[in-house]
Structure formats: structure tokens, C-alpha cells
Amino acid sequence: MPHKITDACIGCALCKKNCPVFAIGGELKTMHHVNPLRCVDCGVCGRVCPKGAVLDSGGAVTARIPKDEWGKPVVDRKLCSACNICVDACCHRCLEITRPVFKGDIEAHAKLNGGSACVGCGLCAAACPLGAIQMRKAKTAL
Q: Best exposed site among 9, 25, 62, 101 by fewest CB in 10 Å?
């Protein structure tokens, strides 16, 4: 079930700007709305909403969470096959596959690319067929 924006919305567009799947529509200073067909229930919209105008899939108001407490992807290098699926799943281009260090290097893996653009949606972890990505709080992820 998708998240929902209530009439407490002030139209600041933070939810729209941060939504990793572009499921939120609306104009600045007008009430925004969630497209239920696009919403992946990641909760990013609720974490950024300054007015508590977002309800989660259970109908509860989602809490605003400071960005430094959002989960970030942590890659288990031993499990990662560098398949690129997580990189493709990330709309914010926060992940990349490492380059070989030397000719014949086969230790490539996904890694967080800086991390400042990461919204902690978890789409990369959900997409990983090997379970090589775990979402952890930012203070322990980097």
C-alpha cells in the first residue's frame, strides 16, 4: 500500500524532490499527491516532510528523520558480483561499480558514491539478487 499525503501539506516539494521513483506530483505551494501505481513504499517522503503531512502504508503519520540518521547502503564485497543491478535501481546515481586496480583485477564490487545524494530508500538493497546490500544508519555506513 502506498504512502499518502494529507491536507496538512504546504507544497514545499521536498517529498517530490527526494522521491526516488518520481511518484509524487504537485506544484510548489499547493498540496502534493502520491501516485499509488508508482509508489514503492520506501518512506522517503515522510522522512523529509516538515509538517508531518505523510501517512505510511498503515495510515500512521510518518516521522521526520534528520538526514544523518537515514539508512545508507553498505555492500558486502564478498557477496557482491558487480552485476550493476543496484546501480541501475538507484535514481539518484549514488552507487557505482569499482574500477579494476590493476590488469586482471577481479575484485570489483558496488560502492556508495559519496553518499550525499542518497535518500536511503533501499531500492538498491531490494534489487540486489545476492543480498549483498544492507541498509545501515549513515553514521555506521560510511
A: 101
Q: Please state which of the ranges 12-16, 65-69, 75-79, 83-87 shows the lowest mean pLDDT.
A: 65-69
**DSSP annotation string for 89-135:** H-TT--EEEPPPSSTT-----EEESSSTT-----HHHHH-TT--EEE
Set out the domains of the chain in order of their start, with CATH numbers. 1-65 (3.30.70.20), 68-141 (3.30.70.3270)
Whether the model clears a pTM of 0.85, i.e. scores above it, the answer is no
Average pLDDT over residues 39-54: 95
Q: What is the C-alpha to C-alpha distance for residues 44 and 54, in angstroms, rounded to an integer? A: 10
Closest CA to 86 of 106, 111, 62: 111
Q: Which residues are CB-contacts of 112 (< 8 A; sequence separation ≥ 6)?
A: 72, 73, 74, 75, 94, 95, 118, 141, 142
Strand partners of residue 133: 75
Going from the C-alpha of 55 to that of each of 31, 39, 115, 135, the distances in angstroms are: 14, 13, 27, 22
